[in-house]
């Protein structure tokens, strides 16, 4: 699963996801892409599940690019633990996804295979998405 090799600090504040994506909102590599339409945190497990669903439907033809990276540590305390005693340990890694952000790009497959693969990948994600194609630009 994806996670940073090293970080400057171990834990982070939660923060909020405000506004539109200020980068990564255009097709750069492939012909078809999955674009987020709402703000949400996407975990490393969800990214991996979507990637597997996409590549499996494409039957390992073509190419897949993952355009988001889980760099936000999300901490949690164990169940049935009293309040206090500091912040919990890092539980998983997540990526902050702004509306308009391209999350996956694919190329090298036909139109219908590409759209179906991205639809299957979108089902694994907690974000409402749109499928965009190069000819739409």
UniProtKB/TrEMBL annotation:
Keywords assigned: Ribonucleoprotein, Ribosomal protein, RNA-binding, rRNA-binding, tRNA-binding
Gene Ontology CC entries for this record: ribosome
Family: Belongs to the universal ribosomal protein uL16 family.
Self-association and partners: Part of the 50S ribosomal subunit.
A Pfam family per the record: Ribosomal_L16
Protein's UniProt keywords contain NAD: no
Name this polypeptide is given: Large ribosomal subunit protein uL16
NCBIfam families tied to this protein: rplP_bact
Function: Binds 23S rRNA and is also seen to make contacts with the A and possibly P site tRNAs.
Classification via InterPro entries: Ribosomal_uL16, Ribosomal_uL16_bact-type, Ribosomal_uL16_CS, Ribosomal_uL16_dom
């Amino acid at each position: 699963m994806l996670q940073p090799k090293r970080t400057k600090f171990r834990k982070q504040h939660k923060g909020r996801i405000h506004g539109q994506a200020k980068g990564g909102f255009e097709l750069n590599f492939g012909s078809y892409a999955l674009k987020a339409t709402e703000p949400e945190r996407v975990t490393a497990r969800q990214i991996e599940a979507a990637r597997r669903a996409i590549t499996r439907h494409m039957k390992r033809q073509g190419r897949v690019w993952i355009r988001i990276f889980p760099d936000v540590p999300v901490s949690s305390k164990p169940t049935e633990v009293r309040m206090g005693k500091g912040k919990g340990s890092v539980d998983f890694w997540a990526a902050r996804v702004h509306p308009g952000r391209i999350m996956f790009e694919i190329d090298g497959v036909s139109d219908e295979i590409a759209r179906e693969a991205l639809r299957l990948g979108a089902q694994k994600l907690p974000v409402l998405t749109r499928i965009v194609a190069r000819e739409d630009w």
